Amino acid sequence: MRGEQYITKPKQYSAIYNQGSSWVNKIIVLKALPNNLEMSRYGFSVSSRVGGAVVRNRIKRRLREIIRPIKLQSGWDLVIIARPAAAGTEYKVLENSVGNLLIKAKLISTETKKQEIS
Fold first, then answer.
1. Alpha carbon distance 92, 89 (integer Å)
2. Is pLDDT of 113 > 80?
3. Threshold 0.85, pTM exceeds
4. Residue pair 42/77 in contact by the 8 Å Cβ criterion
5. What pLDDT, in 10s, does the model give residues 43-54?
6. pLDDT for residue 118 is more than 60
7. What is the dihedral angle through the alpha carbons of 63, 68, 73, 77, rounded to the nearest 10 degrees?
8. In this structure, what are the phi and psi dihedrals at residue 15, rounded to the nearest 5 degrees?
9. How far apart are CA 102 and CA 90, in angstroms?
10. How far apart are CA 52 and CA 87, in angstroms?
11. How high is the pLDDT of residue 1?
12. Please, what are the domains in the chain?
């Protein structure tokens, strides 16, 4: 069940990159595309411009942990892309960035975000 939540195939990533909508801030880029499924799936993209393998993996672990408890609207494929500024960002700032982009994209409600932080 857990593996079904992830976007794993390059074809899925390219569809989201090419056809999806984008929301941006200084730390994160969020791309979303409707998937006509009963659940939402997500993937992460952290390029080598962000840092070495240790830094990239730390950012991916943090992003996974940020997304895990959030109740997303069903039926969406999301790709979260870390910008180079994410390397030096604290966890709380990264969490707020992701939450704010999800609210802008209307994939979670403002009330849900407030409950997640509290």
1. 8
2. no
3. yes
4. yes
5. 999 999 999 999
6. no
7. 50
8. -65, -40
9. 19
10. 10
11. 38
12. 2-117 (3.30.230.10)
Q: Which two tokens stand for residue 5?
A: 């939540």
Tokens of 99: 């939450």
pLDDT digits 0-9 by tens, 17-46? 999 999 999 999 999 999 988 889 999 999
CA 56/CA 52 separation, integer angstroms: 6
- pLDDT, residue 5, reads 83
Question: Distance between CA atoms of 90 and 107, rounded to whole angstroms?
Answer: 24
24 sits in which H/E element: strand 21-24
Residue by residue, DSSP assigns 29-90 as: EEEEEE--SSS-EEEEEE-TTT-SHHHHHHHHHHHHHHHTT--PPSSEEEEEEE-GGGGG--
